[in-house]
Amino acid sequence: MTATVPGWAEALATHAPPAMDPAVGRLVVVAAHPDDETLAAAGFLRAVHAAGGTVELVVATDGEAAFPDAPPADRAALGRTRRAELHAALEALGVGDTRVTWLGLPDSGLADREDELTGALAPLLRSADACLAPWTGDPHPDHAAAGRAAERAAPVRTHRFAYPIWMWPWMRPDDPAIPWATACEHRLDEPARRAKAAAVERFTSQLAPAPGGGPPILPPDVLTHFATGRELFFRVPRPDSAPAERFADLYAGGTDPWETRTSWYEERKRTIVAACLPHRHYAHAAEPGCGLGGLTRVLAGRCDAVTASDYTPAAVAATRDATGGFPGVTVLEAALPDPRAVPDGVDLVVLSEVLYYLSPADVDAVTDRLAHALVPGGDVVLAHWRGWPAEAPQDAAATHRRLLGDPRFDLLVEHVDEEFLLHVLRRS
C-alpha cells in the first residue's frame, strides 16, 4: 500500500509533473552520502536498468559523520558499514552490477571541497547521457555542494537532473525556491516499490537509534516521504545559451546530426511550416539557424529574398550548396542575437529548432530585434521539437511563451502535436 504525505500529495496533484523517461542510455548518479540515491531515486535507477541503460554511481563521502559526536575510530567504522550497506541495497534493488565510484571526501565538508569534487566528477561524467545529482536547493550543505559540483562538471551534451532529499521533511510545498516548473517524476509499480523498500531497509545504521539512544537519522516520519511510490526530480537547464562550439562539433565531418535530409519528422515539419505561412509570397525572409538548408529551399520558393544564417561554417557552406540555384538567397555565419541574422525590413522570420538553445535573456533580446526588424504586419514563425535538448536552457513551450506574451505580436496560427510546437505571430 502506498503511503501518503499531506501537503506534498496535493502539490504533486496540482503541478502534475510529467513522467521521466528511463531510456536515458548511460546515467551517472551522484550522491553526497550512501543512501541518498536509494531514498530519492531507487525506482528510477531500477527502471533505467530494466530499459537496458547503464547506471553508474559516484558517492562523494562515506557518510562517516552521520553521528558527529562519535570518536574517529567509530567514524571510520561507520564509513565502512555504510559502504557495505549501499552495495547490499543495490543488490536488493536488482541492480547489483552497478559500478560504484567512492571518492572518499569528508562527510559534512563538501562545501569546502567543492572544486575538488568538481574535478573528480568531470572525467566520470565526460560521456554521460544523463546526470542525476542532489538538488542545489536541498537544505543540506553537502547535498547542495554535490549538486553544484555536478552541474559544473557535466558536459553540455549531458541531460542534467536533480533530486531532493531533505526538502521533503524540512520545506513546505509552496516554498518559492522549489522549481516546480521543471519538475518531473517517476512512478513505481508494486514490484519496484517493494524492491525500493527492501533496499532502504539495508541502511540499518541510519534506521537504528543513534549511539547513546538518540533518534535515528531516518525516523519513520522522514521515511514516509520516500515510500509514496513517486520520485520527484528537477530538470537542471543550462543557465547560458548553448555554445557555438557544440554545434561545430555536431556538424564536424559533414554530418547531418538531426537527419534533416532524411527524417520524416523534418520533412513533415517543413511541409506544415509552409502550409501555415499566412501569405503566398513574401519580399524578404530571415532564417536564423538554417542548418543544412532544407527549410531555406522551401522559403526561397516563397520569397524574393532570403537571409539565412547559422552558427557554424560547416552549416553555412552546406546551405550555400543547397541553395545555389536560388539567386535571392544570402547565407551568413551569424548567431542569434546577432542583428545580422534578422536584417531590418524583413516581412518574415522563421525560427525553427533554434530559439530554445538561447538563454531567456537572449530570447528576450531576439524578441526585441524581431519587433524592430519586422515591418508592420510582418510574420514570425516559431517551430520547435517538444522534447528538451540537453544543450537548451528551456523547452519549446517556455520559449514560445516568452513571445506569445509580448503585446507587440498577435497570434495567428497555433499548431500543437505530439512532436513539435508551432506558432505564427504577426507584428502589430
From TrEMBL:
CDD domains: AdoMet_MTases
Chain coiled-coil ranges: none
Alphabetical GO biological process terms: glycoside metabolic process; oligosaccharide biosynthetic process
Swiss-Prot/TrEMBL keywords: Zinc
Keyword DNA-binding listed: no
Gene Ontology molecular function: any one: S-adenosylmethionine-dependent methyltransferase activity
Pfam families: NodS (PF05401), PIG-L (PF02585)
Entries under InterPro entries matching the protein: GlcNAc_PI_deacetylase-related, LmbE-like_dom_sf, SAM-dependent_MTases_sf, SAM-MeTfrase_NodS-like
PANTHER family reported for this sequence: BLR3841 PROTEIN (PTHR12993:SF29), N-ACETYLGLUCOSAMINYL-PHOSPHATIDYLINOSITOL DE-N-ACETYLASE-RELATED (PTHR12993)
Name under which the protein is recorded: LmbE family N-acetylglucosaminyl deacetylase
